[in-house]
Amino acid sequence: MNLSKNLTLTTAYHQLQNLLTLVDHYDLARSKKQNPLIEERLKILEDCVANYILDLSHPDETPIFPFQNYDVYYYCLRQLHQNPLTHIEIGSQEKVNAGYIEVILRAMQHLQAFTLRT
Predict the structure, then answer these.
(1) Which three-class secondary structure state does DSSP give residue 44?
(2) Of 12, 28, 64, 111, which residue is least crowded by CB atoms under 10 Å?
(3) Cα–Cα distance, 10 to 72 (Å, whole number)
(4) What pTM did the predictor assign?
């Protein structure tokens, strides 16, 4: 069921904030080397993104956006859904996390820029 018409700018912003919190929870578990929690936190994050994107209509199928920059929000979630955060053993996990977080922060910036103009 697509609930895009009931989605508000505030809800979208809070959902993105929730995703940032989940990334922080994962990173905290990873830094403390709590291996059972690492996969659990990644699964929670992945499920959360999936739930958010399943409730949305594609911008091309939406005659009227529920709020300005809806398309930015949609494509942010789509990118996070198609490229989930993964745990790596070799390399820089911080860089992987930073790339994931950057996608969220850019979408939040677009949403917040709209709220400042209204």
Answers:
(1) helix
(2) 64
(3) 14
(4) 0.88
**Number of Cβ within a 10 Å radius of residue 78:** 15
The answer to whether the CB of 31 falls within 8 A of the CB of 62 is no
Give CB contacts under 8 A, 24+ apart, made by 17-26.
17/108, 18/48, 19/45, 19/48, 19/49, 19/52, 19/80, 19/104, 20/101, 20/104, 20/105, 22/48, 23/85, 23/97, 23/100, 23/101, 23/104, 26/85, 26/97
List the alpha helices (DSSP H) in 35-92.
35-54, 70-82
